[in-house]
Amino acid sequence: MQSEEYKYGLSVAGRAVGEQHWSVTPDRYHWITRLQTDYAGSFLGGGRQIQISRMHPKSRVSASYLETGEGGGRGRTHFETTFDRSSGLVTLSQKLEGSRGTARDEAEIAMVQDYQDPLSLLHLLRDLDNDVRWLEVPMVGSAAHVLRLPDTTLEHAGFALEVRVFVLRPGRSVVYIEQEAPHRILRLLQPLEAGQILEARLLEPQGKAVKEPAREKGRSSGLDLTRPPAKSGERGRRRRGR
Questions:
Q1: Domain-by-domain residue ranges, the chain?
Q2: Most buried in the list 84, 123, 146, 176, measured by CB within 10 Å?
């Protein structure tokens, strides 16, 4: 893994709706991935979301995950998950700040295995061996099911690049990852509740929007992803406050 910084353009049905800034930097014990999403105008209520993942450099599993949001008519939100190997506990906390005050909630569950978070999961996909076709990834609350689809090509900065394609369940997000190192995420499709598709596409270094693919080859694998997530069987203790 190495330090990196990328910028993505967000669009829905060809209409620009915001930007994302992705960065990876090392600290003393972890790799820190930060994803800042800024929504333009009234899309999703506007506002900003920041996601930060701390990942163990050798095992490539999550040490903690933080997600904050502001705008969108929901006030300020703060969600944090910490995976503490020394205590054997996973701590989940959230804080919601709105016009009616602040609400807090915290829970602990036994850490029976290592977990990924939404950002470390993307690193996992980038690092997968080329022959992996199906993968179940432990996440807090359930498992993420990863299916590799046939490879295709995407045009980026004037070059037709070979890419790997993965679909994630639940959620049905589709991730397009550069076949060659450094295995950049070139495109990500995320279904929205309204039936629309939010597209994140890597921008050219000069800041220009990446062109639509000149061609995309490959077809659906036809495999079924309807198998329900594995049950974790974890019990937790909850503490509520307001």
A1: 4-228
A2: 176
Joined together, the tokens standing for residue 39 give 């929504």
Residue length, the chain? Answer: 242
**Which range (31-35, 115-119, 217-221) has the least confidence?**
217-221
Instruction: Tell me the per-residue pLDDT of 106-155, one tens digit each, with 9 for 90 and over.
Output: 999 999 999 999 999 999 999 999 999 999 999 998 899 999 999 999 99
| Rounded CA separation 66/43 (Å) | 23
Residues 101 and 175: their CA atoms lie apart, in Å, by 38
Do 154 and 213 form a contact (C-beta atoms < 8 A)? yes
Is residue 104 within 8 A of residue 94, CB to CB? The reply is yes
